[in-house]
């Protein structure tokens, strides 16, 4: 019988080419890499990492193609993105319900098309056969006001010029924001989940660092910068590696509240209830939700 294959793509961008920088995304990649290697026994050769200038749109799409290529039932795939996120008005008419496309912002982000739209993720992820477990972690913002998130500790004096806590929402420029402005108030924001519905996909799990009307914090925690969501996710996983997803979500939310962060992480996991045998391959005999 063919062994289960575990593959991961980790993307973290602090240093953007043309938009505002962040501080904690590279540490997020380090945290996720350590967790996958030490707790879930991913092999280093099967973990691809893109950071800063290497995390261009073309490179991210190429690595996502690598991630899904050749996947078979029983395989375990992980995609983690730590960086800016935003929303744009849907331009191709496929979002009749809410009219908004969520985007991830690569290193070479610009508003003339150099961004990754949820439709592109959908086209890649729906190529996966049934029985593949795909777990996606997005520590970015899908909506927000552009205001700085409160919370986190004050950095030491030598780091004082850096903002202690940033958010990971990239506001569109005025000309993009005002397109179709008369229609925006009538639209419902749905979040970044198009690749995870029932249109031919199974066992796809989406974690996002905040609700779709919130910002994800890029924060100074425990002496270094991190994405607050990724930091607490990994902290709780290391304390309790066999924790259920439901309980993990509760603990991460509680830690964020305790730290003074307003963001509420979300978990789209309907498909995980469809095949408990698959989960036992990954997490052992302990009940996993």
Automatic annotation (TrEMBL):
Gene3D superfamilies in UniProt? 3.40.50.12660
For this protein, the record's InterPro entries field holds: Caspase-like_dom_sf (IPR029030), Metacaspase (IPR050452), Pept_C14_caspase (IPR011600)
The Peptidase C14 caspase domain is annotated at 6-269
The record, for SUPFAM superfamilies, names: Caspase-like
Protein name per its UniProtKB record? Caspase family protein
Q: What lineage is on file? A: Archaea, Methanobacteriati, Methanobacteriota, Stenosarchaea group, Methanomicrobia
């Amino acid at each position: 019988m063919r062994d289960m294959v575990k593959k991961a793509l980790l993307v973290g961008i602090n240093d953007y080419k043309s938009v505002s920088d962040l501080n904690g995304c590279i540490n997020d990649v380090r945290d996720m890499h350590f967790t996958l290697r030490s707790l879930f026994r991913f092999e280093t050769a099967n973990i691809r990492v893109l950071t800063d200038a290497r995390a261009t749109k073309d490179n991210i799409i190429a690595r996502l193609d690598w991630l899904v290529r050749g996947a078979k039932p029983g395989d375990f795939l992980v995609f983690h993105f730590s960086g800016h996120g935003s929303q744009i008005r849907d331009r191709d008419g496929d979002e009749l319900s809410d009219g908004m496309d969520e985007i991830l912002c690569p290193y070479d982000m610009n508003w003339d098309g150099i961004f990754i739209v949820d439709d592109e993720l959908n086209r890649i992820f729906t190529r996966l056969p049934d029985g593949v477990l795909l777990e996606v972690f997005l520590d970015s913002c899908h909506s927000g006001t552009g205001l700085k998130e409160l919370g986190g500790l004050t950095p030491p004096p030598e780091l004082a010029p850096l903002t202690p806590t940033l958010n990971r929402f990239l506001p569109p420029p005025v000309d993009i924001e005002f397109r179709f402005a008369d229609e925006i108030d009538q639209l419902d924001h749905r979040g970044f989940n198009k690749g995870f519905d029932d249109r031919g996909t199974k066992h796809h799990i989406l974690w996002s660092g905040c609700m779709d009307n919130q910002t994800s914090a890029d924060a100074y925690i425990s002496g270094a910068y991190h994405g607050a969501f990724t930091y607490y996710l990994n902290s709780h996983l290391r304390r309790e590696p066999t924790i259920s997803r439901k309980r993990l979500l509760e603990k991460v939310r509680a830690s964020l509240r305790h730290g003074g962060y307003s963001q509420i992480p979300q978990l789209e996991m309907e498909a995980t209830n469809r095949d408990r045998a698959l989960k036992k391959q990954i997490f052992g005999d302990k009940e996993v939700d």
